[in-house]
Amino acid sequence: MERYGFGIDLGGTTCKLGLFQEDGTLVEKWEIPTDTTESGKNILPDIAASVEEKIQQHRFAKEQIIGAGIGVPGAVNDEGVVNRCINLGWGIIPVSKELSSLLGIPVYAANDANMAALGEAWKGSGSGYSSIAMITLGTGIGGGVVLRGQIVNGFHGAAGELGHIIVNTEEQEACNCGNRGCIEQYASATGIVRQAKKRLAESGEESVLRKETDLSAKIVFDAAKAGDPLAKKTAGEVCNMLGRVIGTICNVINPEAVIIGGGVSRAGDILLELVQEGFQNSVFHASRETEICLASLGNDAGIFGAMKLLLNRNK
Fold first, then answer.
1. Partners of 6 in the beta sheet?
2. Of the candidates 68, 55, 56, 124, which has an alpha carbon nearest to the alpha carbon of residue 95?
3. Can you name the residues that pair with 291 across neighbouring β-strands?
4. Which helix (H) or strand (E) holds 244?
5. H or E element in which residue 313 lies
6. Which of 152, 136, 241, 238 is closest to 196 using CA atoms?
7. What are the C-alpha distances in Å from 12 to residues 24, 35, 72, 109, 169?
8. What's this model's pTM, rounded to 2 decimal places?
9. pLDDT tens-digit series, residues 177-229
């Protein structure tokens, strides 16, 4: 009898869901909107209804379903309790228990960035390694650490918050986390635009970026690739910081590979090249050959990771 599980990646705007065979083959994927009204009280019932609908569509017997894994944008402890998801309107929510009760199947929850890391380690760019770190460069910066196939969750469920490694103690503006000088303030998509605008304001240097009314990280990297001096300086500065953070990560956990994902990673080879200088100048000599590569699963990393979490916990 073929058995199946669900991988769920819960975001602030949409929730991605995947139906998987037990061997990790993705059968089907879909999305539903995330209803954040009324402090997000409808989110888990909506997910349960969507999963139940898929079970009915495929006419699965209950014993064919091994359970579900879910990635949540917040700190999640080993019991599947989330401690505040600001963009969902949640406080302290026992996600695993509540969703399991709604569905009548085992459910395991973890942080969404950790799930992306686990997905890449399982079926993506990290599939040939036993230990990886992943850093995701999006609106913010997330991350995750996988050692010997298992996600490192931490005592409070907050391990892998790589975006909040401090790189500048002189920073005056506060990060979203409340601290100052986090790498998220510089190398995230938002941070790259912030640094470019700062350089434009402080410099009289000519740049194609001055003509842009809606500046983005992609525009900065495209201009850097085309040889624009100010864009090259901005990209070089933020990537040097990111490289130093990756070096620090390697000094602590010594992974086989570091995988860079998120929207900014689409800059491609120029990102990897610029990261190397900061990395080589900060990493311990024994870790200098650590592979740094780009993620390959894209937006599917989270659902793959959530399915892998289910398989790991169901052993």
1. 19, 68
2. 68
3. 257
4. helix 229-253
5. helix 301-313
6. 238
7. 26, 8, 9, 16, 31
8. 0.88
9. 899 999 999 999 999 999 999 999 998 899 999 999 999 999 999 999 999 99
